[in-house]
Design a protein that fits this description.
Elements: H1 6-12, E1 27-35, H2 42-48, E2 56-63, E3 72-78, H3 85-99, E4 104-108, H4 112-117, E5 120-122, H5 125-129, E6 142-143, H6 150-162, E7 165-172, H7 174-189, E8 195-200, H8 218-239, E9 243-248, H9 255-264, E10 268-269, H10 272-278, H11 282-298, E11 304-309, H12 312-315, H13 317-332, H14 334-339, H15 343-353, H16 356-364, H17 367-373, H18 390-407, E12 417-422, H19 424-427, H20 433-451, E13 457-462, E14 472-477, E15 482-487, E16 490-495, H21 505-519, H22 535-538, H23 543-549
Parallel strand pairs: 3-4, 3-6, 3-7, 7-8, 8-13, 9-11, 9-12, 10-11
Antiparallel strand pairs: 1-2, 4-5, 13-14, 15-16
Bound molecules: 1,6-di-O-phosphono-beta-D-fructofuranose (FBP).
Length: 550
C-alpha cells in the first residue's frame, strides 16, 4: 500500500525559497530598532506587561561568529489548522540545525494542552522530512486549550525544564499569540530561563498589522475556496437555475470573502465591516440581495452567486448589540446553562436576562438561529460563527421578500437556491508555493530570534510582494500589537484583530466593480492551485496583498 500520494512525493522535493539573509549564514546577530508602544491603551497594557512592554523591533545581520551553545526548543500548534504549519516546523528545525547541528526540537502534542499534560515527541530529521510542504497540522496535532492560568504556566515550566527546553514557539492566531505574550511576561518575571516566540497563523487573515503583512495559510485557503466558487459560478452559468449562497470561514473579519470576491467576481460579495459602517439591518441586506435578483430576473437570468462572510451576523448593528448582551448573560449564567438540558429552557433562561430591545429581536429569530447564538463560546470567549447558518437564514428571508415582490408584480422570476459553507475544505490543503515559502521563512525567523536570545516576540517576514530572496525577517514585540477588549465580561489586553479596511485598495476595488458584477456574469475561474508550471501561475499572490502593496 502507498504511504504518500504522487503529489506528496513530488512536493517533498520542493525547496522553499528563503530570504537572502538566511542563505548559507554562519551566524546571525540581532539588530535592535526603535522601542515600541502598544497599538492602543498604552498605560493599561504597560501595567500588565512590565517586563516585556516597549521592547525594540528586531532585524538581523549576518555575523561570522557561529551562534550559540546547543539548545533544546519546543513547538506547539494552536487553534484551527492553516496550510503551511508543517513548513513553519520544518523551517524552525532547519534554522536551528543550521545555527548549531546539536540543537534539538520537541513538539508538544494536541496543542497547548500537550505542554501542560507533558505529551510530546522529539522531531527528528526523518519525521520532519515526511511532512515537508504538506498540508495539515498532524505532525504534532493542534488544540484550542487556552494557556492563561499561572498553574498552567508553572506546570508547563516543570515539563519544559525536564526536557531542558530553553525556548518555546507557539504557532497560532491572535488569541494564541496573546497568550504567548502573557506566558513570555510570566517566565521573564520569574526568571524561568525559557524564551517564548509566536508565529502568525490563521486562514482568516485577521492577524496582520503594520509589521505583519499577512498570516500564513490565508493564501492557500482562499485559493482553494476561489477554485470551488469559480466551479460553482460556472455551474450556475451553465444550468441557469440556481442562486448559490456561499458562506465562507474567517471569523469576524471578511478578509476571506473579500479575497475570494476579488478572485472570482461573483454577483454579490457581502462585507461585514461595510454592513456595520453603514448601519445596515438584516432587512436592508435582504432587500439589497433581492433587488439584484429582481434585476437579473428581468434579463431572464435566474441564477447567481452570493458570498457571505461567516461573521456577518456579528456586524449587523442590532445583532451585534444582542450578541454582546448574550455574551455577558452567558458568562453570568454559565453554571445554570450547563445544568439545563432542553434548548427551549436554555433560550428562556437567557431571554429572561436580556434587555427589552434585545429580547424582542432574540425571540423573533428562527429557533435554529436563536439556538446557534447561545452555543458555547470558544475558549477565548468568541461566538462560534462557523456554526451559525447565516446562509440559510438569508435564503429564507430573501425567498419571503421575493414572494412579496411577486405579489406586487415587481418580480417575475423563479428563485431556487443552494447553500454552501466553505471552511474546512481549505484549512489543510497542501500549501501553495507562497505559503510553503512564507511559512518556512517564518520558522527560520523564529529560530533566529531564539538563537539570538529574544523572548516576547512574534516572528515576522516582510516585503512579501518582492521575490523571496528580498523578504525581510523581523522580530515584533507581542505587546506592540495589543489593545484592550471586552472578553467574557472582563477588560483584557489582547492582540488587535485586523478587520477589512474600507478605505484600503482591496475593498475599494470591490466597490468600484461590484455594480457591474452584480448584474452581469463576469465570473473568473481561478482553477486549482498549481505547484508546477509557469511562475506567474505557481507563485501568484493574493489580490489583497498585491493591492495593499500597490
Ligand atoms: P483560528 O483563528 O484558530 O486560526 O481559526 C480559524 C477558523 O477556521 C475560523 O475561520 C473558524 O471560525 C474557526 O476556525 C472554526 O473553528 P473549529 O476548528 O473549532 O471548528
Amino acid at each position: 500500500m502507498e504511504k504518500f500520494s504522487l503529489l506528496q512525493k513530488e512536493r517533498f522535493k520542493y525547496k522553499p525559497k528563503l530570504p537572502a539573509i538566511f542563505v548559507h549564514q554562519k551566524g546571525l546577530q540581532a539588530i535592535e530598532g526603535e522601542k515600541t508602544e502598544s497599538v492602543a491603551d498604552q498605560t493599561f497594557v504597560r501595567k500588565l506587561f512590565p517586563e516585556t512592554y516597549g521592547l525594540p523591533l528586531i532585524t538581523f545581520e549576518k555575523s561570522n561568529t557561529l551562534s550559540t551553545e546547543p539548545m533544546n526548543v519546543g513547538v506547539i500548534l494552536s487553534g484551527g489548522q492553516a496550510p503551511g504549519g508543517h513548513n513553519v516546523i520544518s523551517g524552525l528545525y532547519d534554522g536551528l540545525k543550521a545555527m548549531n547541528p546539536k540543537n534539538r526540537l520537541y513538539g508538544f502534542l494536541g496543542g497547548p494542552s500537550g505542554l501542560i499534560e507533558n505529551v510530546y515527541k522529539e522531531l527528528t530529521g526523518d519525521i520532519i522530512d515526511a511532512y515537508r510542504n504538506t498540508g495539515g497540522f498532524d505532525i504534532i496535532g493542534s488544540g484550542r486549550t487556552k494557556l492563561e492560568k499561572v498553574e498552567q504556566f508553572d506546570k508547563g515550566l516543570k515539563n519544559l525544564k525536564a526536557l531542558k527546553i530553553k525556548a518555546l514557539v507557539i504557532i497560532g492566531g491572535d488569541d494564541s499569540n496573546t497568550n504567548a505574550g502573557i506566558l513570555a511576561e510570566y517566565y521573564k518575571k520569574i526568571d524561568a530561563g525559557v524564551q517564548i516566540i509566536g508565529c502568525p497563523k490563521t486562514i482568516d487573515g485577521d492577524l496582520k498589522n503594520e509589521r505583519i503583512e499577512i498570516s500564513f495559510g490565508f493564501d492557500t485557503a482562499t485559493k482553494v475556496y476561489s477554485e470551488l466558487i469559480g466551479n460553482i459560478a460556472r455551474d450556475a452559468l451553465s444550468a441557469k437555475k440556481y442562486w448559490h449562497f456561499i458562506k465562507l470561514m474567517g471569523r469576524s473579519a471578511s478578509h476571506i470573502a473579500l479575497e475570494c470576491g476579488l478572485k472570482t467576481q461573483p454577483n454579490i460579495t457581502l462585507i461585514s465591516e461595510e454592513v456595520e459602517e453603514k448601519g445596515l439591518t438584516l432587512l436592508d441586506i435582504v432587500e439589497n440581495i433581492a433587488n439584484i435578483i429582481v434585476t437579473r430576473a428581468d434579463k431572464g437570468e435566474n441564477f447567481g452567486v452570493v458570498l457571505i462572510p461567516e461573521g456577518l451576523i456579528e456586524f449587523i448593528p442590532e445583532m451585534k448589540q444582542l450578541i454582546q448582551e448574550l455574551n455577558e448573560v452567558m458568562a453570568q449564567k454559565a453554571a445554570d446553562l450547563e445544568k439545563t438540558e432542553k434548548q427551549e429552557e436554555k433560550r428562556a433562561l437567557v431571554a429572561a436576562a436580556l434587555s427589552e430591545k434585545a429580547v424582542s429581536l432574540y425571540n423573533s429569530l428562527p429557533k435554529n438561529i436563536a439556538d446557534q447564538l447561545i452555543m458555547d463560546r470558544d475558549p477565548h470567549g468568541n461566538v462560534q460563527v462557523s456554526r451559525i447558518e447565516t446562509e440559510k437564514l438569508l435564503i429564507d428571508m430573501v425567498r419571503e421578500k421575493l414572494k412579496a415582490l411577486k405579489e406586487k408584480g415587481v418580480y417575475k422570476g423563479k428563485f431556487s437556491a443552494q447553500n454552501h459553507f466553505f471552511g474546512y475544505e481549505g484549512r489543510c490543503a497542501a500549501p501553495s508555493n507562497f505559503d510553503a515559502d512564507y511559512a518556512y521563512a517564518l520558522g527560520y525567523t523564529a529560530a533566529a530570534l531564539i538563537t539570538t536570545g529574544k523572548t516576547g516576540y512574534m516572528a515576522s517576514v516582510r516585503n512579501l510582494t518582492a521575490p523571496a530572496s528580498e523578504w525581510v525577517p523581523e522580530g515584533v514585540p507581542l505587546t506592540m500589537m495589543m489593545n484592550i477588549e471586552r472578553r467574557q465580561g472582563e477588560d483584557k489586553a489582547v492582540i488587535r484583530k485586523a478587520l477589512v479596511d474600507l478605505k484600503a485598495k482591496p475593498f475599494k476595488t470591490l466597490e468600484q466593480n461590484r455594480d457591474l458584477w452584480a448584474v452581469t456574469a463576469s465570473y473568473l475561474y481561478p482553477g486549482p492551485i498549481q505547484y508546477f508550471g509557469p511562475e506567474s501561475v505557481t507563485d501568484q499572490q493574493t489580490e489583497t496583498l498585491k493591492l495593499e502593496h500597490k
